[in-house]
Amino acid sequence: MSQATASGTDGEAPPAAKPPLFTLTAMVVGSMVGAGVFSLPGRLAEETGVAGALIGWGRRLFSPSELVVLAVSVAGAVLGVVALAAGWISL
């Protein structure tokens, strides 16, 4: 005597739902963009060498928007440590 599975049938999986065309298109476009983004640093290094990579990283790290993000992140981390040390919060 067999036992019923969670789907209510004897050993048969429920039919898989087909994703809509928009979802499939978004997945393909996302994977193409993602692959391109991850190949850019390698191409930059091939074309410009170490100097170009350092210039690219330096420009990125010291742009005004990145400095604001860095400052807010550091301030949040410091505030969290102070609150933990003062006993305002606990882990």
Describe it for me?
With 91 residues, the chain is mainly alpha-helical. The protein has a domain at 64-91. Helix content is 70%, strand content 0%. It has 2 helices and no strands. It has helices at residues 21-61, 64-86. 0% of the residues are buried. The mean pLDDT is 78. This is Amino acid permease. The chain crosses the membrane at residues 20-40, 67-89. Keywords: Membrane, Transmembrane, Transmembrane helix.
Write a brief caption for the model.
With 91 residues, this protein is mostly helical. It has 2 helices and no strands. The chain starts with 20 loop residues before the first helix and ends in a 5-residue tail after the last helix.
Q: Which stretches are low in confidence, meaning pLDDT under 50 for 5 or more residues running?
A: none
Largest sheet: none
Give the N-to-C terminal Cα separation.
52 Å
Tell me the helix content: over 70%
Order of helices and strands: HH
Mean pLDDT score = 78
Strand content: under 5%
Number of strands: 0
What best-fitting shape do the alpha-carbon axes yield?
flat
Q: How large, in whole angstroms, is the Cα Rg?
A: 26 Å
Number of helices: 2
Keywords: Membrane, Transmembrane, Transmembrane helix
Protein name: Amino acid permease
Transmembrane segments: 20-40, 67-89
Features:
91 residues; mainly alpha
Set out the fold topology.
Layout: H1 21-61, H2 64-86
